[in-house]
Please model this.
Amino acid sequence: MNYTKEQTEYIIKEYKKEPNMHTVLCLAEELNKTHKSIIGKLSREGVYERAVYKNKSGELPITKVEIVSSIAENLGLEAEHLTGLEKAPKATLKTIELATGA
Model:
């Protein structure tokens, strides 16, 4: 699936106006290409912005291990001293993290 210079310029221009999946789908339909082809072309041109995953509460995801490391740092301990803590519920870990000064 080759793109002409004009198509490439058009795709880039339209995507830069609204860099989202809806734009990609519209471009794919308009140019009779697959959405993966459009994404590939935008990626090769260095324009495509991958959607950032966010959890249900709208935050960037963080692992329990990262939270435990933060707790350990807040307490001035090595993370190894808190082995097993990562098995606690995430909400509990976040509460402890907040209470220890994060």
Q: What stands out?
A: The chain has a mean pLDDT of 91.
